[in-house]
Amino acid sequence: MAGLEERTRYEPKEVEPRIAQRWLESGLFHPEPEGTPDENYSIAVPPPNVTGVLHMGHALNGSIQDVLIRWHRMHGRRVKWILGTDHAGIATQKQVENRLAEQGRSRVEIGREAFVEEVWKWRREHGGQIIEQFQRLGASLDYEDERFTLDDGYVEAVLKVFVDLYRDGLIYRDHYMVNWDPGLGTAVSDLEVEEREETDTLYSIRYSDDVVVATVRPETMLGDTAIAVHPDDERYKHLVGTTVTLPLVGRELPVIADEYVKTDFGTGCLKITPGHDPNDFEIGRKHGLPAVSVIGEDGRMTAEAGEFAGLPVLEAREAVVKALGDRVVATEPYTHNVPYSQRSGERIEPLISLQWFMRMDELARPAIEAVRDGRIRIHPETQSRRYIEWLENIRPWCISRQLWWGHQIPVWYRGDEVYCGTEPPEGDGWERDPDVLDTWFSSGLWPFATLGWPHDTPALRAFYPTDVLSTARDILFLWVARMVMLGLRFTGQVPFHDVYIHAVIQAPDGRRMSKSLGTGIDPLDLIEGGPRPPVFAEGGNFPAYGADAVRFGLMAMASTQDVRFSEEKVAQGAQLANKLFNASRLILLNAPDTVEAAPRPQTVEDRWILSRLQRAKAEAAARIAAFDFPKLVLGLYDFVFSELCDWYLEFVKPRLYDGDEDAQATALHVLRETLALAHPVIPFVTEEIWSLRWDGLLAGAQMPGVDDALVDEGAEAAIGTAIDAIRTLRNWRESVDVRPKVIVRGALSGDYAETAPLVARMARFEWTSNGGEPAATVPVPGGVVNILPTEGVDLGAAERKREAERERLRAEIRRAEGKLANEKFVEKAPAHLVEAEREKLERLKAELEAL
Hints:
The chain is 43% helix and 16% strand.
């Protein structure tokens, strides 16, 4: 404890890096693969992109997982928090392409092999950044066993899954409508498309005397292959079976009847463009219509567009409208949802493309049952319904991407021959499919592929299935559902038992966090002190709050609903760390090394704090089980700040100063267990305090369970009553302006046999039974305190002061009532001013009543 007397404040900037290094060097986070999954506890970290840096979502989710990991480690479980990163196909390829562009080069110019080597080089330079940042946060991941989704072992798992699903008929190749991202030059999945509301022009175009169609995309009419009407629409029944000539092109379009057509949209005639609309594509297949592609993968019109070939889509739209001339019979604004790529921000083009697909219905059924029968529990329950509804309506998944970075599809072609296997085929003339797999395909194997599957490894036997998956709701379908489907298919077991869907932390103004919008907050700026983003009006730098404070603050915000970032919650975490450090300092400096920590209660306040400690441990266990992290951390705050520091230590200080060994031992015991209780939430400060008195790492210590023998309802009731009495008497002193140093004489009645001395000392009273007539009476729980004449207490002056305040309030009330009685004011003043005056009047009346 050398130097503890001089350390009057906890300094996270000095402590946290030092403690983090101790943890890493200890080997504590790298468990031996022994035992069974039921005996052990494991979580697979949602693998951050290799391109990534720590953002608020990572910090929140990392804090949540670390609380669970540390809690179960301290309760005697062998714990593994599986670490790794995702190769992030699109995002990483884009980063490297940008770097090449800065050098005046392109991936096409250098070729695939050289480009992939460039990406590996980029990963070696930048891939470890987020891992280091997780360490700074205090995340107790297994850093000695880091996985990557393009490791050799992981590649083996991915190829085996593809080949097995292909041979089972669940993976196939087809020309099908996909979401094409022209910006990236690849297909993307439905879940990577976001709808944005836009207002476009709705053009009504006359195809013939009888047929007028309405469209917001006139450029696609060049690919029309039919006109559809509703079979019950009397206006057009006579046209079904005839043809209409397509303007500008001259192609004859059959008029077909289909119930998909809405009779109340536009004219009731629908142009069918199977090559450029998902619904039209399905109608086209149903009616055997050809598909004409007039927009290419580069976002320009194709040769099929005739004179408009080569034009970008928006330019083609203007040119087509101009060429149509008076065939455009009407225009009007039309607000609708438009698909955009989450990856590039470009508008999605629905195109027919030859891609690899995965049938999902057969995989979805077991995944639905796993949630329905309780093998997987999703928290909150509302997310279970979203999960099931999506899986019940699941569509085939386009799993191929037109990229070079990723898991290349294990299929080879030679003429009409097709070979699929984990190893290349023998013989000459084979060409491998150039596409790679969607990143979500490989990450769907994460919980078991990271542990060595398809091999029967000790790690797989010890830690699979994992226990919990914590994530945000936006990847419930992209990732969580796919892990369940693939885990059940290839291991026969669910990949985890609980899924916790946490909040999304928004900017303080309610917008999404984004650096480009000026609303993003870097967690490291909160930890170490850095610039506040523009969304903070006050500007300047954040204080160096420390990792404990950030962890506490984020979990205090972590409801199941989206929540605005609160710097006050982070500051509250810093206050907790400092309060606990100073409380520990008081105990440690007043408990000699010869005193062992042990519950040795001699007084009612000793029995009370030991009982309250058991309640705090029980409540924390319940909150952990319920994934209720805000109540977990705020309950911890209340116990440490209020019960331990504000009350017990104030009760016990004189005994500690007097060398009472029973008080010292009990206080040490309470401190030791409080540190263990708080450690999963605020690990750095608790580990630092622990090291001042006890050997070994707190992170590896065993957290004692609830000791029912120490629960004492009588002591809790007695001290609870005493605390209420102390607060009441302190409030009375303040109300009559008694100076802090004045000891007030009084007579206490009620059941305060064990606590009367505590109440007297804490409220600065002296109890006496001989004092004559009371000067005032103060009700306290279960009794009263008769205030006896005391030098320095002028009750008359206090009453005069209160009466003056009453008179001021009466005058304000008369003024407000007069204003509201004035009809001209009520009728002519703005409504919000009148309402404000009414609210002010009610507040004044309440203040007067309180006096």
